[in-house]
User: Which sequence fits this backbone?
């Protein structure tokens, strides 16, 4: 587990003190809203439809039981008893009072948390694989590098006023669970022929109104050049990124307008001037930070747990849960448990304060006090003994947290949409709920198999609809909510941007339309091993178009 | 028919301009603006509300009568006036009992 150091503690406390004073000056009128807005945004505080919204950072999605319990406490004391986990591995509180936010930030600081870099045109919190440090298919813990990037980027004086926000994601496994190719910088840990650790580097990925897949700028960036190279990318972006139009200000537009080769040359030139200097990352430092993320002392356990196998034979629900919500662990006899925040008919990503407390307890009792937030709006107990899974499942089930749907159609991403968000054009949550109910039947969901459905309530694409196998975008058409379907998107190692399939559907018809798409897949797949995305890539969009709009 | 809406500075709560330059918590109690003169006066109140640090982000919205009830015309403003459509226990809709108080 990452250890806060004195620098972090002082810095965060100092920030809270500053913010207390800024809120006081705002309420007394010494600061106008125009003056205050950038200050509150630097501390994660937005104004949404009904109230303020506080976005709390959970760097690379890692937290412990004490921190989760604090989030529960904040939800209960200062909010309306729940929180919303987001696609940036953060949590949002939807109802805090401005006057309470300094107190909330002080409480967060007590457990080494904050809301810095969750907003504004800065380098945002680095995101990562939710199974980091646990997954069997991982060869290096990406959080170590995410933390090094955090230390480099926190309050980096040169990059506090970028043309636009800047997002970095990193993964340490071949299977990309962190959507790195749709980030401003995407890093994929790799090894060269000499066995040295380094990174494949992608630049210019992103969603929003101009979705783009990141372009590879380095096949192998040596570990010690990570910061110098990142600095070079940021410098080029800071210098040439557009500031005249916020919709064209992300680095993806710069890559597109400048051309990859020219931009690569600019980055390499800047890198040449920066490398081997103060930003050189010595391996000893990586080793030091690595110790911060030292795995727990795993016990020597048999690969298969007889207790779990016996319990599965007796309990069909448990068997189903283990078939979907467990991820292979690097230590024998252990597993990572996905806690789905997608109960049938629920709001994706929402958890009540009571549920957060239960999850904190589970982490402490059965999970070496570790928790993760996934970018798919679920939670994870990364290190659970297989033999403890039946008990964990029982407790999850008793608290409405045992939906056995990880990776299935009802495990969908949805942004808060027009029910909460000031930017949204249409609602997302009711659409997600209707689709969830339509596909409630366990047998049917499992027959459909792996399917990523993602819903956004506006073109800013917080719900990642562009990279959903099935994506839904809500738009406002003359005062009516209309939902466009995109097909064929993906955010894994084979990232692709979905294609709009045709005209949109009103709210009353969108669930039927999704069902038509799914039925078309089922009718046309080669066999049950051909997933939705594979079938779509083989078939193209014509059968789906024909089914939706007539031949 | 129009009215002026804003968020209250201290807690972000949705409010509408009342008849005397006060700010009310339910749209039914808002000042309905039917003339340019009313609008001009209302905008002065709105500016004053911002200057006094009571509200922020004031703007005018369209209202309509639906089934005898006054409501904002756009879905977004109706959601602001009521609360999340998926959580009837939250927002103004959950405080119905306060309206008649």
Assistant:
């Amino acid at each position: 587990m990452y250890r806060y150091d004195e620098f972090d503690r002082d810095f965060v406390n100092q920030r809270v003190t500053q913010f207390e004073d800024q809120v006081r000056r705002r309420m007394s009128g010494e600061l106008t809203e125009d003056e205050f807005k950038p200050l509150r945004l630097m501390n994660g505080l937005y104004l949404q439809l009904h109230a303020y919204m506080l976005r709390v950072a959970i760097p690379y999605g890692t937290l412990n039981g004490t921190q989760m319990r604090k989030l529960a406490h904040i939800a209960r004391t200062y909010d309306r008893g729940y929180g919303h986990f987001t696609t940036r591995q953060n949590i949002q509180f939807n109802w805090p009072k401005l006057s309470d936010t300094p107190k909330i930030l002080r409480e967060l600081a007590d457990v080494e948390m904050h809301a810095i870099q969750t907003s504004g045109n800065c380098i945002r919190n680095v995101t990562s694989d939710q199974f980091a440090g646990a997954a069997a298919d991982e060869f290096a813990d990406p959080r170590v590098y995410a933390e090094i990037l955090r230390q480099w980027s926190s309050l980096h004086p040169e990059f506090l006023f970028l043309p636009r926000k800047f997002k970095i994601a990193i993964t340490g496994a071949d299977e990309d669970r962190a959507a790195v190719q749709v980030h401003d910088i995407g890093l994929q840990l790799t090894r060269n022929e000499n066995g040295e650790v380094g990174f494949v580097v992608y630049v210019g990925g992103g969603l929003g109104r101009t979705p783009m897949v990141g372009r590879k700028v380095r096949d192998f960036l040596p570990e010690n050049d990570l910061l110098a190279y990142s600095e070079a990318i940021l410098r080029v972006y800071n210098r040439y990124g557009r500031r005249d139009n916020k919709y064209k200000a992300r680095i993806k537009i710069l890559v597109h307008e400048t051309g990859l080769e020219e931009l690569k040359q600019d980055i390499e030139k800047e890198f040449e001037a920066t490398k081997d200097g103060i930003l050189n990352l010595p391996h000893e430092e990586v080793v030091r930070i690595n110790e911060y993320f030292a795995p727990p002392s795993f016990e020597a356990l048999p690969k298969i747990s007889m207790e779990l196998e016996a319990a599965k034979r007796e309990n069909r629900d448990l068997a189903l849960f283990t078939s979907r919500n467990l991820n292979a662990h690097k230590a024998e006899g252990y597993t990572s448990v996905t806690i789905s925040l997608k109960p049938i008919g629920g709001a994706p990503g929402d958890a009540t304060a009571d549920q957060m407390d239960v999850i904190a307890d589970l982490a402490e009792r059965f999970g070496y006090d570790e928790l993760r937030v996934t970018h798919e709006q679920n939670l994870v107990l990364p290190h659970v003994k297989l033999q403890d899974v039946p008990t964990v499942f029982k407790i999850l089930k008793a608290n409405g947290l045992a939906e056995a749907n990880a990776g299935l159609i009802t495990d969908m991403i949805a942004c808060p949409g027009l029910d909460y968000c000031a930017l949204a054009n249409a609602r997302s949550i009711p659409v997600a709920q209707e689709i969830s109910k339509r596909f409630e039947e366990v047998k049917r969901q499992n027959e459909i198999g792996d399917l990523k459905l993602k819903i956004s309530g506006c073109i800013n694409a917080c719900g990642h609809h562009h990279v959903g196998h099935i994506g839904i975008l809500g738009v406002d058409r003359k005062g009516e909510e209309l939902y466009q379907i995109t097909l064929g998107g993906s955010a894994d190692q084979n990232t692709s941007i979905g294609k709009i399939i045709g005209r949109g559907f009103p709210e009353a018809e969108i669930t039927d339309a999704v069902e038509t798409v799914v039925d078309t897949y089922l009718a046309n797949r080669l066999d049950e091993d051909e997933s939705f995305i594979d079938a779509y890539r083989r078939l193209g969009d014509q059968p789906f178009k024909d089914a939706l709009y007539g031949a | 028919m129009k009215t002026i809406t804003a968020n209250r500075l201290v807690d972000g709560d949705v409010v509408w301009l009342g008849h005397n330059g006060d700010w009310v918590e339910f749209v039914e109690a808002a000042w309905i603006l039917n003339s340019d003169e009313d609008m001009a006066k209302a905008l002065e109140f709105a500016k004053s509300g911002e200057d006094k640090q009571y509200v922020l982000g004031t703007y005018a919205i369209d209202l309509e009568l639906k089934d005898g009830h006054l409501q904002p015309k756009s879905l977004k403003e109706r959601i602001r006036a009521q609360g999340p459509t998926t959580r009837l226990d939250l927002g103004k809709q959950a405080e119905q009992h306060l309206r008649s108080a």
